[in-house]
Structures are given as C-alpha cells and as structure tokens.
Specification:
α9 packs across α12. The protein has two domains: about 170 residues, Jelly Rolls, CATH 2.60.120; about 110 residues, Arc Repressor Mutant, subunit A (Orthogonal Bundle). The longest helix is centred in the last third of the chain and has 19 residues. The N and C termini lie far apart (about 40 Å). About 30% of the residues are buried. About 5% of the residues have low confidence. The protein is of the alpha+beta class. The strands form three sheets. A five-stranded antiparallel sheet has the order 1-8-3-6-10.
Length: about 290
Amino acid sequence: MQKTLQSLKLTLLNIGYAQLDTSWDYDNVISPFSRLYLITKGTAKIYHSYQEFDFKAGYLYLVPSFTYSRYHCDTYHEQYYISFLEEVGNGLSVYNLKHFIYESKATEMDIHYFKRLLELNPDRSLKDDNPKVYDNRESLSRFEKMNENLSTPAFIETQALLLLLFSRFIRNANRTRINAKNNFNDVLSYIGEHLHEDLGVADLAAFCHLSADHFSRVFQQKYGIRPSRYLQTKRVERAETLLLTTKNSIKEIAEKTGWGNTPYFTRIFKKTTGKTPAEFRRERSLI
C-alpha cells in the first residue's frame, strides 16, 4: 500500500480567500477535482458522501472528486479554498484505497500552510464562485497549465504543502484488507490501465485466477461494490474528465473509455449522471 501511495500526485488548480453570503447556494455539483476549505468566520453547510457538514470557523473540510455535493450559506462566512486534481498511478484514485474523514480541526500550522500556498500562487483565485463558471474544460486546462509558470522551488513547496493538508483527512486503516494471494490493488491498477478495452468481470476474474462468481463475491466484500458497477463507475468518471479536459468527440471518448459504441455509452452515461455526454459538456462549457 505504501508503495502505491508513493505515486500519489496532487495538482493545484485554484487557491484563494473568499467572503461569501447567501448567494453561495449551489446544488448538483459533481467535479473531476477535489476541494479543500479552511473556514475562518461564519457558518455554512455542505452535503456530500451522504453526509451534511456544518462549516465551523477553525476547521478544515474535504470534498472528494466525482462526488455529488451541494453548498448553502444562510448568512455569511469566510473561507480559504483549494481545488486540486489527485491521482495514484494508472489512473486510480486514492479515495478507493484509504479511509477518509471530511472534517478536521485546523492547527496553527494548517492555517500557515494555506497562507503560504496563497503566497506561492497569488493568481490562482476564482473570479466567480459559481461552479458552472469555473468547472469546465477550458478553465481546468488553464489553471492546470499555470503550474508550469512556477519556479522549481515554488512548485516543489506547493506539492509538499498540498500533501500535508491532504494528509489531515486520511485515516491509517486501508479501505480494504488486502489478501496477499489475490492482491485486489493489482486488479484496480489493471482496470485503470485497461479501461479503454472491452473489459468485463470474466476478464478480471481470470486476471486473479478465480471463477467469476468467487471473484465477484470477494470483490464486493472488499470494496462494497459489485465489480460490474465499479467498472461502469470508473468509465463514467473517466468520460467526465475527458469531456471537461479534452476536445475529443463523443465517439472518441466512448472508445477511450471502453464502451464499445456511442449509443450504449450515451445511454449509460445519462442513466448515471442524468445528462447525455453532450449536455454534460455543454452545461459546463465556459460561460
């Protein structure tokens, strides 16, 4: 597990300080990046991962990527905010590998880290807090590319500070207990590497040298999700990322995510997200 985590990559998109009122009220937000908040004054609410969190001054909050969330402020609050991409080798997500908490009491050092990150990246704030304005292909590409403008020392320090803040939310226990004989972390890596192929449960079972039934049973026991559902979820997540960060056609994205044909891809994507791929891309295009 520690070897896998050595490949953890965090990429800064935005950081800033905001004073927000009742206009901070957004629903049905699903982004390909994670969010970190440090609340300094006032109160607000966020909902994600089937939980509601009351923002409190002096606390840190994490919203994972590709998670349905909503945001609401009854009166007024102030926050430092960070948005970032995360990846653990072969397109995996660290959220699949470790247990997380989503609220943590901020230390004096945490507050210093936010301020220092803002000093290192003074031009990365959001001009508009509406996700529809900044959660789109053009904006994400532009903000990600700004990392190339950092000096080498500033880039390394930015990465280190992001990792330190992110570490506040990771619990020591692994998300699953790994059986050395049937290393299911390997099968997650295998899925990430071969997601563009016509990959099914039988292929994954063969990779683990198990029968399809036994593999499915053990996979669900370890990860709390059927392997077929996991495959579908990963394909939709990768499709969302490609829709937002590339100009690939819908047909090309269907092929790159292993759907086989565009109509099937469109049907499953809409069933999962409530929107067709074209609608998803259009609604999140630059306003």
